């Protein structure tokens, strides 16, 4: 029952080529990641993460390295694109064509940035469909995810979501840096805006269209205090927790430590799991006694409340289906067993 | 002039049947409420407030009890429905048909939960229209209000509001628990999100479509401190005040004490009324002297500012029209008299 | 390259007629403003700022005074209008006709308040087009800006933005006082809502449609403490900074001191300019070395990050183009010179 549920707690971009002796160093390192350091989605980045003069080499690295590793999650290369520049779209089409041709069986889809209004998203979908046909892959087998980072894409989010109900569109990912640049947002000492309205809309429209919603990157990777530079774990965790609270399905990671954190936060805590397993167990008992709105520990539980508890259990089941190493590491065996066996129907 | 203005400061749901010796206990208790404990809208709840195996009895209780009481507000039963399940919609249609048939003269409309996109709202409206025709009630005499609690309904809120401009649609009510479950929102220690974007949109679209907007239920009815369990008056009041600030017309109540609080908060305070009566009295004086943007107590007053003062007076007049017991209890007789006699035209 | 970029850091309304011996006193005083006291847009106000019985005199003042001054910014009279009242629209059409006839070469456009849904905005645009044709001005030479202050306009903001992509529509200005009155917002002690969702949408839709976005007026001009009444500089600055952070292009001013503040805040600080000039200078160096995502001072810089730095420089260039007195007063000559000469292309 969890087979058709998409999982993307972590959307980790890795530059497809870097100016080092081994230009595929970061890509390979991400492909080799294990346990909580392995993201649900690995995104070989041919766009902003790779320098303009290394794009070609990034594409070679991607088609060469991806097939060599048995990566535990999904693979979604990010190509170039721009709603306002046909030259970028043409590059994007060539990159999509090459990827589908050479690693069409290994990738789950492509990520297209800087899309504009609905018509531009449809144009990106058509580019994927064309490559699919050209290289003999089944219709719909190569997914499309988009970065929402322009005023036009935000403006058309409802229409894009409706398009997503019945198309290859899979995930809506927020791109705050391009977005702030488009709108002219400014950091006047308290940082850039968090764009709460957009995040809430992203979560809603993804839900309405049956899509995944993913937050934007956090690039203050390190902070310095008293002479020491250290990984900025607190601020990243706060961003990811805010996204999880709003119902975003996952967060963007730029770095293995961020992946550990986002994988962890977008997974119920042992306390949450214990609490909601307990609630449903007590609910199931009360149900046998025929009560509708029952009070458990002072809180009224009706079908709607019940669904929130059930979400917790279902998320654990989906993660267990894909990454049993993570659920077995995180939860007590007895608790996990109860979560896997629980009866989840309200009626 | 206040005749056609709808009033719903309080939307109180009462389970239509509960597993007690007297299954109509809570429904009857709500129908008997007086003074500030009587909600503007009483909602006999056939949906989540009544257990699955007591729905039939809930419907019997509703058609039997409602006609027996001279309830001072409006009666809006909540039926079953779901945008994603025809079985629930069929139950909803049967419940609507039975209600309109037996108590069509006593109820003001029906509340339909879990609606999806515009098309589903139109489907619900058609079900009401059909029952109306079938049982010989005038076209449009039975209203429709909907619970906004799915990603799809939130996504289509503008289109639903436009439909509401010229249809039986009367109120948009927020359903946060189902909504959080749909979006996958999580409580990570600070509670569920308040969904500020949705609340603001609800207030706006209700205003644009000439509809009422109502906040969601607050179910932490009691809290415990130092061994004592007591009614959680502070937190509920804070939620209702937040809703009132944003221009929502009313709040959801689950309990008579909540009804007292929401009736009170969605009514101008004596200080607000004194302040705005005073401002308009001084404005009317200044108007006789021919000044446009006048300064009263350091604040510039133009037509727009004036409208805000007038809102206060008009709200009091509408409440006085429906529930004079409440206005007479709340305001000094002299102040109320000034409010009822004040000239309210800007020009 | 800055010629076609619109600049409106400050939208200052001035009553077109006041009940004083010299009824044009405030209008003339605004037309004579210099330096940071001169707004980018001066708005002779025939609507809420001028008393009902002085509208005719306000129109005379406007057509008489505007041509006499060489005002350094743009001139945008605000006329009367209402989506719900044909009488106001007819007055608005007459005012537009008279303004275009007599001062069509001196004004940049007209500001139309209280617009409703898209159809009403199109109706306002048609009124301007008609006056343009009637009096022989080139098509599109007289702009249209609208006050967003009704539930309907907020509801249709996406559609209005799309209309703005290819029409005379120039700016979206927020009108919070009428807006709060429409929605029934209330001040329960913490002031009126800030309408964060609307402000974020205004910034987004303006960006999507190539329009300017402007915040609403702040009318608590003065505060009193310990017997002294003084200009409320802090609270106005906080509102303007919030608007600037969200990417609004400008703020509404009611008073010369507010104009100084808004002109200043919607202009990069010397520190911001120094920082972003420095970042781009270092980026340009790194680019010569062929690196894509480079780290400068611990922050990763890709094309998107780069665009945010570039915004700062471009804003300074546009202001320098229109108001060199202000840039020369604000910035060190050496820093300004570096900003004007910097290479701004990412590739």
From TrEMBL, chains A, B, C:
Top-level division of the source organism's lineage: Archaea
HpcH/HpaI aldolase/citrate lyase domain mapped to chain residues: 35-191
GO molecular function, one term: magnesium ion binding
NCBIfam families on file: malyCoAlyase_Halo
GO biological process: oxaloacetate metabolic process
Cofactor(s) listed: Mg(2+)
Swiss-Prot/TrEMBL keywords: Lyase, Magnesium, Metal-binding
UniProt protein name: Citrate lyase subunit beta
SUPFAM superfamilies in the cross-refs: Phosphoenolpyruvate/pyruvate domain
């Amino acid at each position: 029952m969890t087979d058709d549920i998409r999982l993307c707690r972590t959307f980790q971009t890795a530059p497809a080529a870097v100016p080092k002796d081994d230009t595929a160093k970061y890509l390979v390192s991400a492909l080799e990641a294990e346990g909580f350091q392995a993201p649900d989605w690995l995104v070989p980045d041919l766009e902003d993460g790779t320098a303009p003069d290394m794009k070609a080499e990034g594409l070679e690295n991607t088609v060469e390295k991806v097939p060599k590793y048995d990566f535990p999650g999904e693979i979604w290369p990010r190509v170039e694109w721009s709603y306002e520049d046909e030259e970028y779209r043409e590059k994007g089409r060539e990159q999509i064509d090459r990827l589908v041709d050479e690693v069409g069986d290994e990738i789950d889809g492509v990520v297209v940035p800087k899309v504009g209004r609905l018509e531009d998203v449809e144009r990106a979908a058509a580019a994927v469909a064309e490559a699919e046909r050209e290289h003999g892959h089944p219709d719909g087998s190569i997914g499309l995810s988009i970065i929402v980072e322009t005023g036009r894409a935000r403006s058309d989010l409802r229409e894009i979501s409706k398009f997503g109900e019945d198309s290859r569109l899979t995930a809506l990912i927020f791109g705050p840096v391009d977005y702030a640049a488009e709108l002219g947002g400014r950091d006047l000492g308290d940082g850039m805006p968090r764009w709460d309205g957009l995040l809430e809309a992203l979560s809603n429209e993804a839900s309405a269209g049956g899509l995944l919603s993913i937050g934007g990157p956090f690039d203050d990777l390190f902070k310095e205090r008293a002479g020491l530079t250290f990984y900025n774990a607190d601020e990243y965790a706060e961003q990811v927790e805010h996204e999880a609270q709003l119902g975003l399905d996952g967060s963007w990671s730029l770095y293995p430590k961020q992946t550990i954190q986002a994988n962890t936060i977008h997974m119920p805590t042992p306390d949450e799991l214990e609490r909601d397993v307990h609630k449903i167990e007590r609910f199931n008992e009360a149900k046998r006694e025929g009560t509708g709105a029952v009070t458990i520990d002072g809180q009224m539980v009706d079908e709607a409340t019940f669904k929130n508890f059930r979400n917790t259990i279902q998320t654990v089941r989906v993660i267990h289906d894909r990454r049993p190493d993570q659920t077995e590491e995180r939860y007590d065996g007895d608790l996990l067993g109860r979560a896997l066996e629980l009866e989840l129907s309200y009626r």
